[in-house]
Design goal:
Length: 410
């Protein structure tokens, strides 16, 4: 485990030296976005200092350098997720854009009464694009419901039938931390000739994700949740599926020929990358992948498991805290949503901030889930490799005092 090899990852993250409200910053909002190691910041700075040009467009040296850096980043992503070729990797703005692209470009194939199946815990990004095409094309939008432990009961899998055209599901819930059995869901989807889309926004920063192993038809994620920069995301798709999809955004760099009244489009992946691409984002994403791979996802996962176990154990000792999601910690990643009795989550989060702790309060872009759980909102803390046991101790100490701040005896 990381702590046993006595490496202080905080040193690699300049922002973690910052003081917040006079306290050491304890950054526990990693499910929203992660901090960036110096190597990522330096890679982006080096790109602008030494290599900036518009990729795929020019014969001049800087354009060629930018193209080569962009392609290197695709190669890194391809290897990271075990795709077959860089033609299966499309750079987008984020997971949200990847999901919108998919919903738009796949919808051509959908017919009235075809079913799209989501899980009730999906992020709005994995609901709204499907909801729109469901309304436009008279499709049926259905949901898998979870049990009180945040897991999917066996009977819910029976909702995947021959009528199901597509299943789109997050591998890890951004509210409950539940890790869903994606390989099993993918297998059932394929037995019913349905397409499976995996939203890996929360899983890929923390767990090894192999698109072949889980047999994902499509997979999406955002660089900013895995130590990379904002503004770049990934859409992976099996090549034969991408080949049959129309483009989403239209413009420069994605065409074959354009006439006054007609156009033909470039091959995959260029067909899906209209306009000037985010090369510094790609460079930063590659640096983030290099950093993660140097440490090893298995080590990251083990470290976060240790932090989560410790945090859950200590939080359960505080009588006025209710934790949501699986209590079987094997089924949960490093995300803990909870409420403090009688105190609004926004107040809890504001009080935590006065201890230097960054947490998140609200519906976490999961209103259908919150409604299903009879909640308006919750507080969420989420961990990453640079968190340590002392961070959890600061959190527990603050949580023990939250109610006192608002005049409750304990
Ligand atoms: C599970 C899940 N899917 C999708 C998204 C959307 O990610 P982005 O805002 O980077 O597009 C998030 C963001 O929190 C998420 O947690």
């Amino acid at each position: 485990m990381i702590d046993k090899i006595k490496v202080n990852f905080k040193e690699d993250f300049p922002i973690l030296e910052k003081k917040v409200n006079g306290r050491r910053l304890v950054y526990l909002d990693n499910a929203a976005t992660t901090q960036k190691p110096k190597s990522v910041i330096d890679a982006i700075s080096d790109y602008y200092k030494n290599h900036n040009g518009n990729p795929h467009r020019g014969a001049h040296s800087l354009s060629v350098e930018a193209t080569s850096l962009y392609d290197d980043a695709k190669e890194a992503v391809k290897n990271f997720i075990n795709a077959d070729s860089i033609d299966e990797i499309i750079f987008t703005k984020n997971s949200t854009e990847s999901l919108n692209l998919l919903a738009y470009s796949l919808s051509e194939d959908f017919k009235e009464n075809d079913e799209i199946l989501l899980c009730i815990s999906e992020h709005h990004s994995n609901i709204l694009p499907w909801m729109r095409i469901a309304k436009e094309k008279n499709l049926k939008l259905k949901y898998i419901y979870i049990d009180e432990n945040g897991s999917i009961p066996e009977s819910e899998y029976e909702k995947i039938t021959k009528k199901t055209k597509l299943v789109s599901i997050a591998q890890m819930s951004n509210v409950l931390g539940t890790i869903y059995p994606i390989k099993k869901i993918s297998k059932i989807a394929h037995e019913n000739d349905a397409i499976i889309v995996v939203d890996a926004a929360q899983s890929i920063p923390h767990l090894k994700v192999d698109v072949k192993d889980i047999d994902a038809d499509f997979l999406v994620f955002s660089a900013h949740k895995m130590l990379g920069p904002m503004g770049i995301g990934v859409l992976y798709g099996k090549k034969h599926l991408l080949d049959n999809m129309p483009p989403f955004l239209l413009g420069g760099d994605m065409i074959e020929y354009v006439y006054e009244n007609d156009a033909t489009f470039a091959e995959v992946p260029f067909r899906f990358e209209a306009g000037t691409q985010n090369v510094e984002g790609a460079v930063g994403l590659k640096a983030a992948i290099d950093y993660i791979e140097k440490i090893g996802l298995q080590n990251i996962e083990a470290h976060e498991k240790m932090l989560t176990e410790y945090a859950v154990k200590e939080m359960l000792k505080i009588p006025y805290i209710e934790i949501y999601g699986p209590m079987d910690l094997e089924k949960r990643g490093g995300i803990i949503s909870f409420n403090v009795k009688d105190i609004h989550p926004h107040d809890v989060s504001t009080i935590l901030d006065s201890y230097g702790i960054a947490s998140r309060a609200g519906h976490h872009c999961c209103q259908p889930l919150m409604r299903y759980m009879n909640l308006n909102s919750s507080v969420r803390v989420s961990f990453y490799l640079y968190n340590n046991m002392e961070d959890i101790d600061v959190l527990i100490d603050a949580l023990k005092n939250v109610r006192k701040w608002l005049g409750y005896g304990s």
